[in-house]
């Protein structure tokens, strides 16, 4: 892992109160737009093979589409069963309209 910032999307591509699946190298990452602020977590649920980008945003949380486990988007904390393992989050920077993630 390096300290490089990598462009993964345009900020305008992430729908308001929605998600966008992107790739950071080989890793699938889910971007979230919460009231105009962009967050990023790993896209694969820590409970199983489900894409959080297909999940449902509820306030500050994402609900997994497979078994309805929940994570706090900003911190990655597992906050709803059956998820018990936190999900990785990524530092996000917006520059000239682009979403940059730290590798
Ligand atoms: Fe996400 Fe089971 S795969 S809650």
What does this structure look like?
It contains no helices and ten strands. With 103 residues, it is mostly beta strands. The model has no long low-confidence stretch (mean pLDDT 96). A hairpin with a 2-residue loop joins β5 and β6 (61-63). The protein has one domain (5-102): Rieske [2Fe-2S] iron-sulphur domain (Rieske Iron-sulfur Protein). The chain is globular. The relative contact order is 0.25. It has a four-stranded antiparallel β-sheet, with no helix packed on it. Strands 1-10-9 form a three-stranded antiparallel β-sheet, with no helix packed on it. A three-stranded antiparallel β-sheet has the order 2-3-4, with no helix packed on it. It binds FE2/S2 (inorganic) cluster (FES).
Query: Which ranges are low-confidence, i.e. pLDDT below 50, for 5 or more consecutive residues?
Result: none
Alpha-beta classification: mainly beta
Order of strands, widest sheet: 5-6-7-8
Which quaternary structure do these chains form? single chain
CATH homologous superfamily descriptor: Rieske [2Fe-2S] iron-sulphur domain
Beta-strand share of residues: over 45%
Q: What's the end-to-end separation, in Å?
A: 6 Å
Order of helices and strands: EEEEEEEEEE
Computed Rg:
13 Å
CATH class reads Mainly Beta
How many helices? The count is 0
Q: Percent helix among the residues?
A: under 10%
CATH topology: Rieske Iron-sulfur Protein
Strand tally is 10
Morphology call: globular
Nearest-integer average pLDDT: 96
Based on the coordinates given, report the CATH architecture. Answer: 3-layer Sandwich
> Number of folding domains?
1
Q: What ions, cofactors and ligands are bound? A: FE2/S2 (inorganic) cluster
């Amino acid at each position: 892992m390096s300290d490089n910032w990598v462009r993964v999307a345009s900020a305008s591509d992430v729908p308001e109160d929605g998600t966008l699946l992107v790739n950071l190298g080989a890793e699938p990452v889910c971007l979230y737009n919460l009231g105009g602020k962009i967050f990023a977590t790993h896209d694969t649920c820590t409970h199983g093979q489900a894409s959080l980008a297909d999940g449902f945003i509820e306030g500050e949380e994402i609900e997994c589409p497979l078994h309805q486990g929940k994570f706090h988007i900003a911190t990655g904390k597992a906050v709803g069963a059956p998820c018990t393992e936190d999900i990785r989050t990524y530092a996000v920077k917006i520059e000239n309209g682009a979403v940059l993630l730290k590798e």
